[in-house]
Write a structure and sequence with these properties.
The chain contains six helices and no strands. By secondary structure, the protein is an all-alpha fold. The radius of gyration is 30 Å and the shape is elongated.
């Protein structure tokens, strides 16, 4: 018995790895490639816009270039996604979930802060500078929001990695309900013969 239990415990990780490899290399290979390329492209594209906005607003102080943070997270997430597609491993799935979660939260926070800075910040005196700054700020916010939305889709894709989990839970719940109904029917069927016998006794 102990040998069988140990053998089953050794087979479970290999079975999970095989399912993960089939999922990453066959079922969702195209989706993972598109996600990785999109994350890498958005992470690299946001850098010149964020630097330009920081130079126009605060004399190139990089501490004010908040979109660089989600850009760095998007770069790491894209690299992990490519590695997951190339050589699927369970720890890469966990790393991808962690990076995407942080990128989603941090990205939305940065977008809100940048929008507030755009609306409430001081306007430049030159009209041409105002238009160029507005275009750069909107582009930076759009790239940051795009990275956050891609992270949200990545988390959704990872949540669909185990199809049938909710279905198995519903089936388990249905089996429990059927078992309870059967347990309720058993005492009723046992009480009916006794009631019939008592009724016959009173008639006699």
């Amino acid at each position: 018995m102990e040998g069988r239990a140990g053998q089953q415990e050794q087979e479970r990780p290999s079975l999970r790895l095989e399912k993960l490899q089939h999922w990453a290399r066959h079922r969702q290979s195209g989706h993972l490639l598109v996600l990785a390329v999109s994350q890498l492209w958005l992470a690299l594209a946001v850098v010149p816009f964020a630097v330009s906005v920081a130079c126009l607003n605060s004399d190139c102080h990089m501490a004010t270039a908040l979109p660089l943070g989600p850009g760095a997270l998007g770069l790491l997430t894209g690299i992990v996604t490519l590695e997951l597609r190339r050589a699927p491993r369970l720890w890469k799935v966990r790393a991808m979930m962690i990076f995407n979660t942080f990128n989603l939260i941090f990205g939305f926070i940065v977008v809100v802060v940048e929008v507030m800075k755009t609306v409430l910040g001081p306007a430049p005196t030159s009209r041409s500078q105002l238009h160029s700054l507005l275009v750069l700020e909107i582009s930076t916010e759009a790239f940051t929001l795009g990275g956050a939305l891609i992270s949200a889709y990545s988390l959704f894709l990872l949540s669909q990695r185990k199809p049938g989990c909710c279905r198995s839970q519903s089936l388990h719940y249905q089996e429990l309900q059927e078992g309870l109904s059967e347990l309720e029917e058993v005492p009723d069927s046992e009480n009916r013969p006794t009631m019939v016998s008592t009724a016959n006794g009173t008639n006699e």
